[in-house]
Structure formats: C-alpha cells, structure tokens
Design goal:
Length: 523
C-alpha cells in the first residue's frame, strides 16, 4: 500500500452552499458523526465567523470524542490594513474552540486588485499574519490557496509567493484550489510538479466540478504528490459542485492502491452516500459511480447472460466492496446481509436460513418499490424488523383520523386534527389545532397518548422533510416524509411514503412515537 492520503470533507460548509440544501444544527451533528464512523480524517464543520449556527455547532461538539475525525474551522485572512487580533473572523475562530483551522486567501491578482482592492504586498502580509496569528495561539493551520491554478497561469511568481507566505507563517498543509473548476488534469499535474520543488509543507487539492473533472483533477494531484484530498459527499457544492469524495475514496483505495480508509469504511460508502442525500433532502443520483442504485444494475440480455456466468465481465469491481449490490432488472436479486447485520446490532436472533429473514426481506423490497429508503430512517427500520419478528408491543392502534384545514379571506389558514385510537384496551377520541395540518396531527396524536405514556412529554419534532418521488405524476405523485424527533438523550429519524402527504406523515409520526416508547421500555 502506498503513502497514506488524508481525506478532508467540506460537505457542511462547501456542500451546504449547493442550491436546495439547508442543514439544521442537528443535521450537521448527524453528518459529523457519520463521517467519523466512515473514517474521514478532517471534517470542515463550518465557518464560525460567518453565522451563529456554525459557532453553536463547534461549541456543542467541543467536548465530543470522535473515533477518527478532527474538526476544522474555516476562516478567511484578515481584512486589509487590520491587525489579526482585531479581525472578527479570526477572533471567532479562536472562540469556537477548534484545534485546527483552515484559512483561505487570495492568490490571483484579479482578486487581489479587483475584489480585495489592495496591493500585492498587503495581500502577502494578510496571508502571513492570519496564519501566524492562529499558529501562535496554538492552532494547527491549513491554508487554502483560492483560485490557485487560475492565478498560477496568470502570474506564477506571485502565486508561489502566496504559498511561501503561508508556509513561512506555519501552515502545515498548503491546499491548491481549482475554485472555478476550469482546469484540466494535465494542467493540475504540471503546475503541482512545478511548485512542489519550492515548498516543504505538504500539499492538498480542492477541486470544483465546473468542467466535470473534479474527481479526475483530484486523482491527478495525488499522482504527483498531493497527500490531502478535499471534497464533499455526493459532490454537493456551489454551481456544479465539488469533487465527490465517494468515488474519490473508492478510486484511491481500489484502483490506485493508496491507504485512505479501512475496508470496513469502504463497505459503508453506499450507506453514507444515501444517508447524506436523505439528510440533505436531495434525490440520490441513481447512476452515481460505485454507490448508485444503477451502478451495478444490468438490463441488456447479453449483459445479464454474461454477468451471471462471470460478474467481472460487466462489473469493474465486486459491488459488495463498497456496500452496493448487483441488480438484475428483469428479476431483481439482492442479498440479506444488511438485514442480518442490523439484526445482530440489535441483538435479535436471526439467521440467513430463518424464514423470518425471508419475510423481512420481502417486506423491505415491497416498501423500497413504493419509495421507502431506510438509510436515513434507522428507527423505522428497527421497528420493521421487530414487527416482523413479533418483538414489537402494540402500543396503540389507529381507528380513525381526520385533518381539516380552514382558510378564510385575508386570514391565516388554520388546521385541526381529529383522531380516534385504541390504546391499552380503551378508545381515545381527541382533537387538536396546529399551525398547519402536520403540526395539528402531531399535537392530536400526543394529546391522545400522553395520559397513557407520560414520557412522550419529553420528546419533540426537530425536523420535517418532504420529497416528491415522481414529479411526472404531478399532484398525484407519491410523497416521502422523513421526520426527525428527539428527547433529552437521543435523536432519531422515521419515514412514511404515500400518495397522500397526511398519510405519509401519519406513518412517520406513529413510527416516531412507537420508537420513543420502545426506547423507554428498554431502560
């Protein structure tokens, strides 16, 4: 195995700049923990100097012990003609309690003169002062050379001087950024080889995908000596996105022989990819390399005949290496390993030969065909398993549900939910109002159950995501609802799918309540 390559994830900062993505505080915490389990070396959790949410995240995670990952705070160089100790962004970087910071600075004269409107010398001082200020305060500092490859083509001598300024100030990694995403792999390799001879610090690469080459450019950089690759899960990012870390990781380990992640982490790539897409409320790309649903799907008759005899004839790797599976579209085939693995985690007695495993698997396939995806709804999947095995108590049973929305001219719409459920042998019939139909449903369900299960007072809805599964169907399209709930100790996700958003919401809400009651019963 070749020299180890460090993986640097910026999904929570660069990825969050993608159109359509907005992470809550709990979303970011979830993603941080999942990236740590994957084995990412560095997680750029945000820019604490730019918004209160990111500052809150760093302070909340300051005492969290991660297995592998180290949190990194993003910041910019000081403003022109201002002491670092007076710069708001740099002070926020110290306040957030991160042990590592990454500073970005201007490399391209176009930006120095037209955006910052300062001089070449002052820009060099800004880079040196900012990095040195944080180093002297005990932080390890990486430096992002923004627009490096455009800058190097324009003025190679000055671009190199900016790197030297950061290195002289104490930066341990110099990250070369193809910020506009316009470079070709040959350019990347040539430029890195030229500057590498003048530097002692380790080099990193940060590529955007505006030319569709972010992954290729990242791998090209590694070939000529970059030992850190920055990117985002699923390539999320502004404009056309960033280098997608999922295929980057797979290519580094499986095709190029670089040590970057454990075999166990590699097997979780598909799950992580789907998890982040669900948390981001983004449709997962079916033909995404390595981890997409179609990545190892075979439809053509010639292909199917060949792959059933010799899988390697139409598959470049064994799909199980990255947690994926082969799919024969005319007769879908899939293993039961994921079910058995989850059952083992939950200490449930289940084997491959057990008829109950076949029952669970059959239910899972039917639900997935309807639009269910359990990657980001593990609570619902646990309930599915325990229902199939007869291990889930009947806490309540729906008898009837009605939701009414009333809208009068020039007045705010109101909603009322009326619910009738059977609980502990009794029929409970109640109603509640809410800001909208979903809020009213939540209020009515918990109102009906609170006298029977007082611990429900300690849980609340923390996020609600809705996804239309087939836009072509218009208003008749199936809707997927994912609900995030939490109490004082835990946070969990549940899922519902239906052509009716109220029914989908009911499925997710009732699962959330059942999971809370099941969790409390274990204590």
């Amino acid at each position: 195995m070749k020299k180890r390559i460090k993986l640097y994830d910026t999904t929570l900062r660069d990825g969050a700049q993608a159109e359509g993505i907005s992470y809550s505080l709990m979303d970011k915490i979830y993603i941080c923990k999942r990236l740590d389990e994957l084995g990412i070396d560095y997680i750029e959790a945000g820019w604490p100097g730019s918004n209160p949410k990111d500052m809150q995240l760093f302070l909340k995670l300051a005492k969290t012990r991660f297995k592998k990952s180290k949190l990194v705070a993003f910041a910019s160089t000081r403003r022109p003609n201002l002491a670092p100790s007076q710069d708001r962004n740099l002070k926020a970087t110290l306040k957030c309690q991160a042990k590592i910071a990454i500073i970005f600075g201007k490399t391209w004269m176009l930006h120095v003169e037209s955006v910052l409107r300062t001089t070449k010398d002052e820009n060099l001082k800004m880079i040196f002062d900012s990095v040195n200020f944080l180093v002297k305060h005990g932080l390890r500092v990486f430096y992002d050379a923004e627009h490096f490859f455009d800058a190097y083509r324009d003025n190679p001598d000055y671009a190199l001087k900016t790197l030297k300024a950061a290195e002289d100030a104490g930066a341990s990694f110099l990250v070369l950024c193809d910020t506009n995403g316009g470079s070709l792999p040959a350019d990347i390799k040539r430029n890195i080889l030229e500057v590498k001879a003048h530097l002692n610090a380790e080099l990193g690469i940060h590529c955007h995908n505006d030319s569709g080459l972010a992954i290729a450019n990242s791998l090209a950089a590694v070939e000529v000596g970059s030992t850190m690759v920055q990117g985002t899960i699923n390539g999320y990012g502004e404009r056309c996105g960033n280098a997608d870390l999922i295929p980057v990781i797979a290519n580094l380990k499986l095709k190029m022989g670089f040590d970057c992640i454990s075999d166990e982490g590699l097997k979780s790539l598909r799950e992580v990819s789907h998890f982040v897409s669900e948390i981001s409320n983004m449709r997962h790309v079916g033909n995404q390399p390595y981890v997409g649903d179609s990545a190892f799907a075979h439809k053509g008759g010639v292909h199917i005949n060949a792959v059933m005899k010799t899988p390697y004839s139409y598959e470049h790797i064994d799909p199980e290496l990255v947690g994926n599976r082969r799919r024969i579209l005319v007769s879908e085939l899939a293993g039961k390993s994921a079910i058995l693995h989850r059952a083992e985690e939950l200490k449930l007695d289940l084997s491959k030969q057990d008829p109950k495993t076949k029952k669970v698997y059959s239910s899972l396939k039917k639900l997935e065909a309807k639009g269910y995806h359990f990657e980001a709804a593990q609570a619902s999947f646990e309930l599915l398993l325990k229902r199939a095995l007869g291990k889930l108590p009947r806490y309540f049973e729906l008898q009837e549900l009605r939701v009414i929305v009333n809208k009068e001219k020039d007045k705010k719409a109101t909603a009322e939910a009326v619910i009738k459920i059977r609980v502990k042998g009794k029929i409970e019939h109640t109603a509640a109002e809410g800001d909208g139909p979903i809020n009213a449903l939540d209020n009515a369900l918990r109102k009906a159950l609170l006298d029977f299960y007082p611990t429900l007072a300690g849980m609340h809805l923390s996020d609600f995501k809705v996804r239309i599964l087939d836009e072509k169907e218009g208003t008749a399209a199936a809707t997927r609802v994912i609900i995030q709930s939490q109490d004082k100790k835990d946070t969990w996700n549940t899922i519902g799918v239906s052509g009716n958003i109220i029914e989908a919401s009911w499925q997710a809400f009732s699962d959330s309540i059942e999971y809370k009651l099941l969790k409390d019963r274990k204590k």
